Here is the input.
Amino acid sequence: MSDLAIGILGGAGRMGRALVRAVTEAKSARVAGAVDAPGNPELGKDLGVLAGIDPLGIVLTDDPRALFAAADVVIDFTVPRATAENVRLAAETGTAIVIGTTGLDPEQRAAIAAAGQRTVVVQADNFSLGVNLTIALTRRLAEMLDDSFDIEIVEMHHRHKVDAPSGTALALGRAAAAGRGVDLDAVADRGRDGITGARKRGDIGFAVLRGGNVVGDHTVVFAADDERIELTHKAGDRSIFARGAARAALWTAGKAPGYYTMQDVLKL
Ligand code: NAD
Here is the structure.
């Protein structure tokens, strides 16, 4: 069987470069090409050189349509507006799409889920194995503990991150809420400042730290009187997300159209 042709959207980005490395290293996969935004200063450069590996003989372009035509599956780690457009293209062309972009609004999330009726869509706010296990464990603990345990989610990321709380923190929050049988939007407490009053029973609180080059730390705290459980995951390098996304891209081969998550890919 020939290698799966994987296209990369956001090829000049931090994750885009990590994806070029991960797909090049993956068995049964090859880089079909990569695009970035019009005007990006890296356009026209060799993808391997941009990724810090040997030249691949393929250059970065700003033509997503040609990339969708050349690829069996595309991986998108860009910005919400670009992802919304890419999902439309995936539905139109039937190309499978793996989405890692975070900071999406409810309308964009709904459009992504709807594209699952036309093609294979895998979306995850975090593609690492460890985080996906932490999400599964969070849901399980929230099922087992009643609301005498207050749930708080703390995250820290590098100083360049533009959205908060992180997509992963929100995914952990959704898992905790699902474990409790409630909707996260109804119980999320996302910004405490000043005289906030006492904590409301059943709330799920978020706290956000930004600084340095931290790739991503997440802790879910279950705090009751006199005892506390903490689940912590620390990402050391963004290659874990890139390898997970490449694994998800390989997993799409031969799948029926549908909306899937990393929990499906990892069979959690
Ligand atoms: P980045 O800013 O380094 O890269 C984003 C790239 O997208 C940039 O090169 C930008 O020019 C490009 N882009 C913008 N508009 C585009 C368009 N129309 N077409 C093609 N490319 C376009 O950011 P990053 O650190 O690589 O992160 C990218 C996204 O992935 C963020 O939303 C981040 O939160 C998310 N992320 C998700 C995971 C996960 O596991 N799901 C892990 C890390 C980062």
In short: The two ends are 28 Å apart (CA to CA).
